């Protein structure tokens, strides 16, 4: 019986949600066929890609007739369908709900606020907004609270929520977040980085790239005034 | 023991949980949490949820926030079957993908366009309207050739997105430009149990607040 269809991932290395999928796939040893989509060159707007995913976002995951977008849905699917056990995304309703809650916190608050801070600088030539940075710090303050009594972001063991949030945290750091202000985040972040296979290659390199791009744009915006 | 639910009727994410509870057949002990009066910043609530967001659910000590996580939990823990949130990995992943589309794009862009006008006295920003319209264009594409948001049956993704779409609709966002959305929305309103009582009534409250806070502009 043939049960393993090829799994394709349309991705761009510096893209944070793509990095989360790459890290998790490595952790469960899921072999992805990588399809490079250069966002800066507009490759996501090519006719074939828009046909695949009308929202033309990356990551986009394809396995047989399944076309899946949204990184956090992809993380969950990879564990549900391809991991040896459910430890990274527990089936038990309460444990799963906690993981989902943290993934939605990342999608709607932590990542969202960082994204809102980055986009005007990187894509619109604006200076970084101090007001928006305060919101970023507030969100990391919430995360710090969540981690006060828990070893990992959704309880006492590592889950896909850690994979998603470690990427967001590395972006925060790349944009200048002082992790010293968030002791619980700091403790968790160091442990998470050590626990994730090929972390430097799959995440840190992309975070550095994004950080360099951000700083170059900040310098341009300052010099243009 | 009752399940406490901290909510406000005008909030779309709160309404989507109410719709889920109704569809699953679970009773919630409703705890009205008035954001305008700062109920969410009181010490007892902060102890429960340091992020002080609503909706928040307290199921006998198991405290959960993030509406879409609560919806999944109610189906998994209390549902008679898994039809609203299928266990099969592919089907579930498609529901999850649409829930993330809602939080990150559809509802997000609604909030970005309307909230500064409602809560901060700003004027409408045409660039933000264009982004919101694009989000509805994506939703319309997703619905092409399928009856429901995540496939051929009603799921919690329909409940979440019905709450988002109805809220945009009532404050004047024109959904008639999106034929698949319009068709789906008409069907959703009749298919979702308790829609009028639990969702539409909350939309009316949201509209009242919108009118009050934007009066004279």
UniProtKB/TrEMBL annotation, chain A:
Single Gene Ontology MF annotation: glutathione transferase activity
The source's superkingdom equals Eukaryota
One biological process term from GO is: glutathione metabolic process
In terms of PROSITE patterns, this protein maps to: GST_CTER, GST_NTER
Offer one Pfam family short name for this entry: GST_N
GST N-terminal domain ranges (all copies): 5-86
Give residue ranges for domain GST C-terminal. 92-214
Similarity comment: Belongs to the GST superfamily.
Assembly = Homodimer.
| Protein name stated in the entry | Uncharacterized protein
Query: What organism is the protein native to?
Result: Gryllus longicercus
From TrEMBL, chain B:
List GO molecular-function terms, semicolon-separated. glutathione transferase activity
- Protein's GO biological process: glutathione metabolic process
Q: Which InterPro entries match?
A: Glutathione-S-Trfase_C-like (IPR010987), Glutathione-S-Trfase_C_sf (IPR036282), Glutathione_S-Trfase (IPR040079), Glutathione_S-Trfase_N (IPR004045), GST_C (IPR004046), Thioredoxin-like_sf (IPR036249)
Q: Where is the GST N-terminal domain?
A: 1-82
One Pfam match, given by its short name, reads GST_N
Q: Which family does it belong to?
A: Belongs to the GST superfamily.
Listed name of the protein: Uncharacterized protein
Q: Which organism is it from?
A: Gryllus longicercus
